[in-house]
Write a structure and sequence with these properties.
single chain; about 800 residues; five-stranded antiparallel β-sheet; 33 helices; 25 strands; about 45% helix
Length: about 800
């Protein structure tokens, strides 16, 4: 520890550390930095608060936590040998504790103890190890909070308040000499339970049924209920103090007796070594990379298809935020995926900043301007942006369809899907996969077992609450989402993902690019009015073909079907029949089938034969017979048409409704402007205002960088100097109480700081800021003028200016 005498408090132990060790503490427990402690005493006090200790315990691995739990039931302070014995046992447990596990505990304990010391959960020399009081309270057994070790209270704790007469009865039944001193009685009973020979002789006389009762209690919980007239085995145990009363109907197995039955072990299964992540299958790394690349391209295409589907304005935002169940179902049908997978793609697009709400009165989801920039990137760079967003996002799509703490349904894009643990779990799962040989797919159960060892849950948290199950569920979702996204291929980590995790996006994109299919500039037209795209198409070709035909099926090859409606859609967008014929002839590797040419010519001949304008709206046609046919059709009654000229009908419906109504009747009308020109109706691309991607929700305070840690350590050291240094006192001045602000008159303060400025020495001052907060500081004055002191502040490690009227007093530092 660097001191000649053992530390008496945690503050003394921390004060004896070097700067590097203090920085390690602040790095491991960043919550201690908010705000920066004024001195070592404040740091120690904050490190012992319940909230901070709970957070520190939750970040321990299983063996470090088991070490802390063993210290919680050990004497305070405990020698290293006692702690080791609680973890390894005394070797007399009928072979249950294997020698290799005991050797692993011996090897792993120094590191576990070092972790606890570094995080200020344990302090003291090896012969006097102390667990901080708050951690001992959290981990010690009680009826309200059972110990994680399954042990009950000590004999002294369980017999507190017991009558001397009852103690004498227990001593007599156990064969111990009588004593009228309750303390001596408790000591004698404790000595019996901790003496392995005498305890064995006592248990040899126990009925078999009594031993069965002890077997049920020995590994916890140690509490049991008894009736007013207990059975003979229970009565035998109770008479000899092996079961002590907690209440009129509850008894407990005392800790010393349980440890004897456990052969001295605090835990049934000590786990000094992390579980090994086992391989489920070993595959060819090149096959893994090809499979992952195929999924990566599919992921990019799916996100593009989703946002193209919402290009003209997506679904309405629910009043409470998020996407309705019906809209999610429609989106899943459009993407031809299950609803949970559709929720994943929607959330991924949102996390990548490609999708947001437009903020209008009739609020809807729509692509952002960043989506247009994303479309211009090469496919490999588009995938990298999606994968990077997924790795850092706290949005957890797996929760969609569940309920929050208040029983309300969780919806996609809703406000309650952030889980701060998600990025850490994703990175840890991928790191475990990265530790396997290339092409190795892990067994998911062993991955979960490893994660549970690294971040175990304490006490009842292991079985109740969302946190208990959430990390495991996020890990399983990570494995599934990684496969969907092309992070993994056939369960194994892909090469481009390894590069993304270790070398950066540019390297990952470079490895992925050769594995992605090249876009094609042609299709294969077939006589059944379909076109087959044998691979991904170039963007202009895909956009034009998407307007001219409907997608019938997707997969390795995409099948497009031409219909009268799809051809009319292309004509409405301003294309002519000649344009469509030329487009198909230029991009088809097969001759254009005659039925397709006839379909285009037939739709084009009828397209625009009827003209619609605003009257409220009107309908005109050079063929009077066609107008007469429309008037005679009963389906046109809702349009409220009437003839105002041989070739003109007027309608009460607006032009858009009139267009839709006539198309439903089987006609192919075209809208026209006030000048009689045909209006081209393209689906307008709707974009939100510029939006940034949602910021991940941090899990606790961020880990400080090296610069901040160094400044914080210097500030704490300086504050500690100000709080603990011996200050010079004038003979006539009263002694300043420890920790109190110095008090001097304004004249004395001015003289002291002026003298320090002239000599270049440091002084100790008390200072009250504008908010009324008082602090002690060590400063080296540089200039004193105009009612201000300019000085180097050792506490803040910077030059500062202080108003003299806010300095409560100043004192020289003693030699």
């Amino acid at each position: 520890m660097g001191t000649t005498t053992p530390p008496r408090t945690l503050a003394e132990a921390l004060r004896a550390r070097d700067d590097e060790s203090l920085a390690g503490l602040l790095r491991a427990r960043p919550d201690l930095l908010s705000p920066v402690p004024g001195d070592i005493t404040q740091l120690a006090t904050r490190a012992g608060t319940r909230a901070s200790v709970v957070r520190a315990l939750e970040h321990l691995d299983r063996f470090a936590l088991q070490t802390a739990e063993a210290l919680a039931i050990a004497p305070d302070p405990a020698p290293y040998g006692t702690l080791l014995g609680l973890l390894t046992g005394d070797g007399q447990d009928d072979g249950e504790q294997r020698d290799d596990v005991g050797a692993a505990i011996v090897a792993a304990l120094p590191d576990a103890l070092g972790t606890l010391r570094e995080q200020a959960l344990v302090w003291g020399e090896d012969d006097r190890l102390r667990l901080v009081r708050t951690a001992r309270e959290l981990l010690s057994p009680s009826p309200q909070h059972p110990s994680p070790t399954g042990l009950g209270p000590t004999v002294a704790e369980a017999t507190a308040g017991m009558s001397p007469g009852r103690l004498q009865e227990i001593l007599a039944a156990a064969g111990l000499p009588a004593t009228h001193d309750p303390v001596s009685a408790v000591t004698a009973l404790t000595a019996l339970f901790t003496d392995r020979t005498r305890m064995g002789e006592l248990l040899d006389t126990a009925p078999m049924e009594a031993l069965a009762v002890l077997d049920r209690l020995v590994w916890g919980p140690p509490y049991g209920e008894v009736t007013p007239n207990p059975t003979p085995p229970v009565k035998w145990l109770r008479d000899r103090g092996l079961l002590l009363p907690v209440s009129t109907r509850t008894v407990v197995l005392p800790r010393e007796a349980a440890l004897h039955l456990r052969a001295g072990r605090a835990h049934r299964v000590p786990e000094p070594r992390p579980p090994v992540v086992a391989a489920l299958a070993e595959r060819d790394p090149q096959a893994v990379d090809r499979a992952a690349a195929g999924q990566a391209f599919s992921a990019v295409s799916t996100v593009e298809e989703l946002l193209k589907h919402w290009n003209g304005g997506g679904p309405v935002v629910l009043r409470a935020g998020g996407l309705s169940v019906r809209e999610l179902r429609k989106t899943a049908a459009a993407l031809d995926v299950p609803e949970p997978v559709a929720a994943f793609w929607v959330e991924l697009a949102y996390a990548a900043g490609l999708l947001a709400s437009d903020g209008e009165a009739d609020e809807r989801y729509a692509p952002t301007p960043a989506y247009d920039e994303w479309l211009e990137l090469p496919a490999e760079e588009r995938w990298v942006s999606l994968a990077t967003a997924w790795l850092t996002a706290t949005r957890t799509s797996g929760l969609v369809g569940g309920q929050d703490a208040k029983g309300r349904a969780l919806s996609a894009l809703g406000p309650d899907l952030d889980r701060a643990a998600a990025p850490e779990v994703r990175h840890r799962v991928l790191a475990l996969l990265d530790g396997l040989l290339a092409g190795t797919a892990p067994d998911p159960e062993t991955v979960l077992a490893r994660l549970r060892w690294e971040r175990p849950l304490r006490g009842s948290a292991a079985t109740t609450g969302e946190t208990a199950d959430l990390r495991s569920r996020i890990a399983l979702w990570t494995l599934n989402e990684a496969e969907l996204l092309g992070i993994t291929g056939r369960g194994a980590l892909a090469s481009h993902t390894r590069a993304l995790l270790t070398e950066g996006p540019a390297k990952a994109a470079g490895l992925l690019a050769p594995l992605l299919p090249e876009p094609l500039d042609h299709v294969l037209l077939q006589a059944d009015l379909t076109a087959v795209a044998p691979g991904p198409l170039e963007r202009p070709l895909a956009d034009m073909l998407g307007a001219l035909a409907d997608i019938e099926s997707k997969g390795g090859a995409t099948v497009y079907r031409f219909t009268p409606g799809s051809v009319r859609r292309a004509l409405d967008a301003g294309r002519t029949a000649a344009d469509l014929h030329a487009f198909l002839a230029a991009h088809s590797r097969t001759p254009v089938p005659q039925p397709l040419s006839y379909l285009i010519d037939d739709v084009a001949r009828r397209h625009g034969h009827l003209r619609i304008g605003a009257a409220s709206s009107y309908l005109r046609c050079d063929d009077e017979a066609v107008l007469g046919e429309i008037l005679a059709d009963k389906r046109s009654a809702a349009l409220r048409l009437r003839r105002i000229a041989p070739t003109v009908l007027a309608a009460l419906a607006d032009p858009a409704s009139l267009l839709d109504g006539l198309r439903e009747m089987g006609y192919a009308p075209a809208a026209e402007s006030a000048d009689g020109d045909v209006l081209i109706t393209r689906a307008g691309a709707r974009r939100t205002p510029p939006r940034s991607a949602p910021a991940p929700v941090p899990e606790g305070p961020p880990v400080p960088d090296t610069t901040l840690l160094g400044a914080a350590v210097r500030a704490i050291r300086a504050g500690d100097t100000a709080a603990t240094v011996v200050h010079a006192q004038k003979d006539t001045a009263p002694a300043t109480p420890p920790g109190a602000l110095p008090r001097t008159t304004p004249a004395e303060t001015l003289v002291t700081v002026q003298a320090a400025a002239m000599t270049g020495s440091a002084v100790w001052i008390g200072y009250v800021n504008a908010d009324g907060a008082a602090s002690q500081r060590v400063i080296a004055p540089v200039r004193v003028e105009g009612g201000f002191v300019t000085a180097y502040d050792h506490t803040a490690d910077e030059i500062r200016t202080y108003p003299l009227h806010r300095i409560t007093g100043a004192a020289e530092l003693a030699e």
